[in-house]
Amino acid sequence: MTSHEIALLRLHNQSLWSQPGTEPGALLQRLAAVQAQEFAYAKWSIGQRTSGATHASIQQAYARGAILRTHLLRPTWHFVHPADIRWLIDLTAPRIRLLNGFTQREHGIEEAMLRRSNAILGQALAGGHHLPRTELSARLAAAGLPSTGVPLAYLVMHAELSKLVCSGAMRGKQHTYALMDEWVPAAAALTRDEALAELARRYFTTRGPATVRDFATWSSLTLAEARRGLQAVEHGLERFQADGRAYWLAPADPRPKVRTPRFDLVQCYDEYIMSYSESRDVLGLGALDRPEFVHFILLDGHRIGRWRHQLSNGGAEVMTSTDRALTSREAAALQSAIRRYQRFHQAGG
After folding, report:
1. I want to staple 275 with a disulfide (CB 3.0 to 4.6 A). Which of 52, 173, 207, 309 is the partner?
2. Three-state secondary structure call for residue 289
3. Torsion sign across C-alpha atoms 157, 161, 165, 168
4. Segment holding 297, helix H or strand E
5. Secondary structure (3-state) at 79
6. Whole-angstrom Cα distance, residue 191 to residue 54?
7. Residue 25: burial class (beta carbons within 10 Å; 0-12, 13-18, 19+)
8. Do 203 and 338 have their domain in common?
9. Phi/psi at 35 (nearest 5 deg)?
10. Which pTM was predicted?
11. How many domains would you assign to the chain?
């Protein structure tokens, strides 16, 4: 299978070229998690994979807790469905804590400090209080704990990894934290083997074709655990070899034909970019040649340029930089992709 064929399969399986779910929650459950530290752009990662979702509708879903945002898989923000947040944290928090350990020690954050911080944050949020980080910072400062910069970030992340807190309702334009047990409905727990298998199934179904090393890096699991998860579900997957690598994916379904050339605007932390390590070269991303344009323009799944936006009450202005001159047909297709992004922002802001 060629790199072009691999890219096309990924576009379909990641729902960039097909929208099997009609609302953001269904999409999140399909993908397991969506990287989300760039909040405005991350909402587009959901919107372009769903039918009819707008910036406003995704913002509303987030505000009512139908979409959550927390640290899991890797030490960074992810969108996740409420039904999945606990088992995903249980599965991936041990590795994240190991990855965080060096920075915590560097800043003098010890276990006793983490326990005290959790107790203070729990008391502050109890009773349905959803508080922004500034107010949590003040509570920690009053108790003599670190309350700014990197130490504050790691204290709050520890509370997330402890399943104590997660994203709460918006307060105007401010993000807040809520107690997880008060904000997120209870869900059945999974054993570690069940969770490994479930994460492997969702990953290879929605990111395939991908390698087991891709899966290990994306999930932050050890390679041994990634292999164990894959082995549990490999009977339901297809396998092929290309360029000396073993790729896995869900059995092929009839895929809708897409008119090409097809352009997609994806943010730099989009799952299409972040889901691969060993086989990332398939995407032809290249170096960051113009740092003011950090997001990717894809032509049939391969990088052909970069883009950025400027948001206003009237919608979104999109600026682009392409690696080569476009044909008239390609230029028209790129404008179509830009209009899709602008419609996403114009439909209710």
Report:
1. 207
2. coil
3. positive
4. strand 295-299
5. strand
6. 36
7. middle
8. no
9. -60, 140
10. 0.94
11. 3
| 268-293 tens-digit pLDDT | 999 999 999 999 998 887 655 555 67
> Token digits for 209?
């074709």
Report DSSP state, residue 87: H
Same domain for 45 and 82?
yes
Is there a domain that residue 256 lies in?
no
State pLDDT tens for residues 301-336.
999 999 999 988 778 999 999 999 999 999 999 999
Centre a 10 Å sphere on the Cβ of residue 222 and count the other Cβ atoms it contains.
11
Which residue shows structure tokens 């570690």?
Answer: 192
In a shared domain, residues 201 and 148: no
Look at residue 258 and tell me if it is in a domain.
no
CA 109/CA 118 separation, integer angstroms: 13
Contacts of 342 (CB under 8 A, 6+ apart): 315, 316, 318
- Contact between residue 225 and residue 235 where contact means Cβ atoms under 8 Å apart: no
At residue 265, the 3 state secondary structure works out as strand
313/151 Cα distance (integer angstroms): 35
Find the distance separating the first CA and the last CA of the chain, reported in whole Å: 42
Residues 207 and 329 in one domain: no
